[in-house]
TrEMBL record:
Assigned GO CC terms: cAMP-dependent protein kinase complex; cytosol; nucleus
SMART domains in the record: S_TK_X, S_TKc
Gene3D superfamilies: Phosphorylase Kinase, domain 1, Transferase(Phosphotransferase) domain 1
Protein name per UniProt: cAMP-dependent protein kinase
Entry's Gene Ontology BP terms: imaginal disc-derived wing morphogenesis
Sequence ranges assigned to domain Protein kinase in this UniProt record: 89-345
Organism placement in taxonomy: Eukaryota, Metazoa, Ecdysozoa, Arthropoda, Hexapoda
């Protein structure tokens, strides 16, 4: 039964969404500041004291509550993309490709000289073929409603006869994936700085009842200062209870998804454990050239931490990579406090981090705002637009 499901999984198209990056992984196997209101200022109390920690925590709960309210206010607004816009942008270079289309560095023709953006072009035909219309609508609606320091936002969206377009700020430091492979592995100091931001981002998404479902270094961008932006909201969905869709990336997928069980927010905490491991080791915990073996290792939770991991890190990973949902951190009574209060994060000032007041341990080398040297080269393709409006009704809500 399990094997049958796993076979189905390997064939599942949605799993293969990030095929370019899958290729990258396989190839390797083979050889804006959001400030808190004054009321939440931390400067009055030294943040290392217990009193201050409690104050920070309740101040942060108020922040989350406000962010959620803002999110749902934007979410409830009806916004339909204009059917023109492409002509306003000058295409410069492809930054990345996925299975639907590509992300291109563009410059707004009329705006000031530094008006660079990343434009995700998604072909309507491919969305229809891969039955991703609901996911893509979620991607648009969620990304236009989200404002969080460590998550990508949407500046414009438009559509034409053949494509839909999402225009986002260009995050020029490149993917975490690129830097991780360049450095081979991150120090625990750097991993902790990144892991803390991802934790706050997932905590915020879950607070808004949004599942992320595609956490991995390819989808995490580094900005010019060295802070993170989680990109690719393509599998984000508002889920209050459980859901059943098979999606994700093999190495990062949670066991309950493989086993076709209904699943919830805990899947993101599993992937978070995988990310913690990969950042510190340079490779993911469950890996094999055979996807079936990857799934087998995941459902039996077979992995080994390198001896270089600190005992605190090993302990945190052990608590994230839990098959038993009643023991997996993030999914327990105390929610994200179990991670935030964990020894590995003992020196992390969560409020200062949210306010981007911590000096990043690593800054990507960037020569100019439009520097693409932190991105892999891709073959360029001309975007061909049909004479008639394809799938007009299906994309009416975009
Ligand atoms: N805002 C952005 N700034 C810079 N590069 C980006 C941005 N958004 C996406 N990219 C690049 O394009 C790649 C593909 O984008 P993504 O949204 O992940 O598409 P897909 O859903 O096809 O995986 C990313 O992995 C990244 O390299
Ligand atoms: Mg992606």
């Amino acid at each position: 039964m399990v094997v049958q499901m796993m076979e189905q999984l390997t064939q599942e198209k949605t799993l293969d969404k990030d095929s370019e990056h899958e290729k990258k992984r396989n190839a390797e196997k083979n050889d804006k500041v959001i400030k808190l209101g004054v009321a939440f200022s931390t400067t009055m109390v030294p943040s290392s004291s217990a009193l201050s920690k409690n104050r920070n925590r309740s101040a942060y709960s108020e922040v989350l509550e406000r962010l959620k309210k803002d999110f749902y206010q934007r979410w409830d607004r009806k916004s339909v993309s204009s059917s023109s816009g492409l002509d306003e942008f000058l295409k410069i270079k492809t930054l990345g490709t996925g299975s639907f289309g590509r992300v291109i560095l563009v410059k707004h023709k009329e705006n000031s000289k530094d008006a660079y953006y990343a434009m995700k072009c998604i072909e309507k035909l491919r969305i229809m073929k891969l039955k991703q219309i609901e996911h893509t609508l979620y991607e648009k609606k969620i990304s236009e409603s989200i404002r969080f320091p460590f998550i990508i936002s949407l500046d414009f969206a438009f559509k034409d006869n053949s494509y839909i377009y999402f225009v986002m700020p260009f995050i020029n430091g490149g993917e975490m994936f690129t830097h991780l492979r360049r450095m081979r592995r991150f120090t625990e100091v750097l991993s902790r700085f990144y892991a803390a931001q991802v934790l706050l981002a997932l905590e915020f998404l879950h607070y808004c009842d949004i599942l992320y479902r595609d956490l991995k270094p390819e989808n995490i961008l580094i900005d010019h200062k060295g802070y993170l932006k989680i990109a690719d909201l393509g599998f984000c969905k508002i889920v209050k209870g459980r859901t059943w869709t098979l999606c994700g990336t093999p190495e990062y997928i949670a066991p309950e998804i493989i086993l076709s069980k209904g699943y919830g927010k805990a899947v993101d905490w599993w992937s978070y454990g995988v990310l913690l491991f990969e950042m510190n080791a340079g490779y993911p915990p469950f890996t094999s050239s055979d996807p079936m073996k990857v799934y087998e290792r995941i459902i039996t939770c077979r992995y080994k931490c390198p001896g270089t991991f600190s005992t605190e890190l090993q302990d945190l990973i052990k608590n994230m990579l839990q098959l038993d949902l009643s023991r997996r951190f993030g999914n327990l009574r105390n929610g994200t406090q179990d991670m935030k209060n964990h020894r590995w994060f003992k020196d992390t000032d969560w409020l200062a981090l949210y306010n981007r007041q911590i000096e990043p341990p690593f800054k990507p080398a960037i020569k100019s705002v439009a520097d693409t040297s932190n991105f892999d080269p891709f073959d360029e393709e001309t975007i061909r637009i049909s004479d008639h409006d394809l799938y007009k009704d299906e994309f009416e809500k975009f």
